[in-house]
Amino acid sequence: MIHQRECPVETLIHVLGGKWKPMILWLLIESSKRFNDLEKLIPDVSQKMLSQHLRDLEREGIVDRTVYPTVPPKVEYSLSEYGKTLIPVAEVMCAWGENHNKRKYEEPAS
Amino acid sequence: MIHQRECPVETLIHVLGGKWKPMILWLLIESSKRFNDLEKLIPDVSQKMLSQHLRDLEREGIVDRTVYPTVPPKVEYSLSEYGKTLIPVAEVMCAWGENHNKRKYEEPAS
DNA sequence: TCATCCCTTTACTTTTAAGTAAGTGCATTA
DNA sequence: TAATGCACTTACTTAAAAGTAAAGGGATGA
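^ Those are the sequences you sent over. The predicted structure of the assembly is below.
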């Protein structure tokens, strides 16, 4: 499982690597959401960054983008079937991250 | 396990987030290594970046730094006990990343 | 007629990360 | 005397990521 010269950990980190992508993924794991919903749920994200990161995730096949041709337009973002393969990974990462945050909080002077 | 407002996935990505940290972790999972070993094993890393990322990982408690007061100096970097908690996480991330790379290779025009 | 809503895109600026090159210290070897 | 090896650090430059502000398009409601 472990080779010397390649490090696929980088791949995952690259896919989820932007400043906002983890949060977007997290919210879409919960349920599909519209652009505006995400904008409201992610404090301080700019429309540009949200749009850009959603397009990145779409390009990787992780997120599906469904456009309903209504007026005003409605666009729904959801995890693709492939994107759902990230859920267990995200959960493991989440668990470690939560523990790490707790650890930092408990012993800030180490 | 899933909360609305926090996303600990970000924590992990932040800890492993630099350009070289995943590779460093990967190599240290395999075995402890010296500065020069890492430099040779990671193509194109500069001493500055290697040093900086090692210090980051040390600060997070993931990597132990052992100095042997010999001349020339010998410094060994190894995974700390805490750092070893990252191994299963890295393996899950690695597995997903490998699959993702394969997928990309198989259908580059999706 | 004018503003409104939603989902963007574009042009420009600022911030952050990474790269480059050189230098440090000290003991051993040539 | 000078060069070598190891493990860095510092100062400076460049590249990448993110932030800001504004505009667009097209139907609907006031």
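The domain at 8-106 of chain A is CATH 1.10.10.10 (Arc Repressor Mutant, subunit A). The radius of gyration of chain A is 16 Å.

Shout if you want it in another format.
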